[in-house]
Amino acid sequence: MQSNKPALNGKVRYTTRRYKCPHCGSCAKVRSSKEESKLVTKRYLQCQNIECGHTYATMEEIVHTITPSAMPDPSVNLEVRGITTKTVNG
């Protein structure tokens, strides 16, 4: 998953989400991905630890809206929840 972040020189730079192998904890690299729907993406990953070599798939889903789009797509129906924080009662 990549996200756009403005760089100091005004150009867009890309950051990459870090995935961990569920077996050895090493970094895993996205090898390919497939958009299942507008809200769901399937990603195929490979552990970068050559001694492990685990390959696996993940499903990434958009579950709710925090801030509504200024250009909403009528075919996308997401609940608006905003940001919530958990409090711990002592």
Task: Describe it.
A hairpin with a 7-residue loop joins strand 5 and strand 6. The chain is 0% helix and 40% strand. It has a domain at 20-66. It has no helices and six strands. The model has no long low-confidence stretch (mean pLDDT 86). The strands form two sheets. It has a four-stranded antiparallel β-sheet, with no helix packed on it. Strands 1-2 form a two-stranded antiparallel ribbon. The chain is mainly β and 90 residues long. The protein is elongated, with a radius of gyration of 17 Å.
Shape: elongated
Number of helices: 0
Q: Class by helix and strand content?
A: mainly beta
User: Overall mean pLDDT score?
Assistant: 86
The description of the largest β-sheet is: 4 strands, antiparallel
N-to-C CA distance = 37 Å
Overall helicity: under 10%
Secondary-structure element pattern, one letter each: EEEEEE
In percent terms, what proportion of residues is strand?
35-45%
Question: For the largest beta sheet, what order do the strands appear in spatially?
Answer: 3-4-5-6
Low-confidence stretches: none
Number of strands: 6
Rounded to the nearest angstrom, the radius of gyration is: 17 Å
Provide a quick synopsis of the model.
By secondary structure, this protein is mostly beta strands.
Which key terms come to mind for this protein?
elongated; two-stranded antiparallel ribbon; mainly beta
